[in-house]
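lol ok so funny story. i was supposed to be doing the assay writeup but got distracted and ended up predicting the structure for this chain instead. priorities right. anyway since i did it might as well share w the group, maybe its usefull for someone
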Amino acid sequence: MTSPITTQADGTWLGTLRAEGRARFESLGLPTTKAEAWRYFPTRALRGVDFAAAGPDASDASVDSIDGLRLPGTAACLVFVDGRFSAERSDLTGIPDGVTIGSLAAALASDPERVRGVLGAVAPSENAAMVAANEAWFTDGLWVDVPANTAVEGAIQVLFVTTEAAGPATHPRNLVALGRSAELTLVFGWSGPEGRDYATNAVTEVSLGNNATLRLVNVEEEGGGATHVHHLQARQTRDSTLKTFALSLGGRSSRTSVRAELSEPGASCQLDGFYLAGDKQRLDNYTEVDHQAPHTQSDQYYGGVMDDSAVGNYLGLVFIREGASKADARQLNRNLLLSPKATANTKPSLEIDHDDVKASHGTTVGQLDDKALFYLLSRGISPEDARGILTLAFAQNALSRMGEAPFAAALVHHVASKLGAESVLVDEELMGGEGEQ
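and the output, tada:
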């Protein structure tokens, strides 16, 4: 391996952090399916990747127009190219005064002590090899600092674009800190070239103050040769709210993991997602919710549609710790198989160490309803359209949980087009219909 990537801001504490991350990564080794959290992910996709290799400077990379990636209704758009912030490609006009949203590398240079209080404090790397690799070799990422009592209007879009010129792996490190009663909506987007193999190893740390609210939609649509690993971990204090939606569409092998720590009373989270896999894709979703305090709530809904020889995975774990009285946890995973060769692996689970709680979990795996399909065919609808209508109706159970923002509607249309059902969705809207939920 080459020496760790350094930045101009590397001081004693950051250099130590990087060295510890590298040592842990080399000690732990790559994840294997023997670890419960990785049991469904094709870990062989990680072998042979030189995670330490540095790529070119973002300013040297050729990027196709990002206009098609900008979602409607977003107030600002930050662009990271091959793991580094690109100011010339970003639009920061919608970020209000007093709110810091920008480059982590720049923040390390200008306010390292503020960053030090968040970096590595929420997502430890002691037993997490891929977090340790990110810690050792990240060069840049998103830095968000929203002060108390500040609500940012409109969603902030953040695009992570990998180019043909990128190194074998990039390691974006994102830090999001919201003060007391702050509110923010973020939309992450991940994309890359179709014609090459590459890896993305991202870590997002979220720190929520009392009564703060973060909504984060994560759209993974990497290139066909990509291996994508993204770990998001949040620490929530009293009465804070976290809402995440993981939309997984691209990559050869993709894994999105979310861990929410409900550390004080009143904290709540809603973790949702939808994954659409075709060909030989492997899309993996892993969630952990840790109820550490009384009167905490969690609600999870993940849906998956698999076609061809694709594999869709969901593994979710809910902890309700001793002393977490009145905790309320719900967890549901539903899967639709469109091909006899498609596979769904699903395992929602609970570990409860307290009696006075509410907890439920469930999972389903099925195929299109033959009776519903026959009904549509009997009304003169083509087999392709009938299949698209029923699949979209299934998908909308999950997609509707993104809300009604313009960017969410655009993402629903994007999924509908992949299902061959966009014309059906448009017809429903023209007729004033609500769509099947």
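The helical segments are 12-28, 104-110, 112-116, 129-137, 370-378, 383-399, 406-418, 422-430. Residues 1-10, 430-437 have pLDDT under 50 and may be disordered.
back to the writeup now i swear
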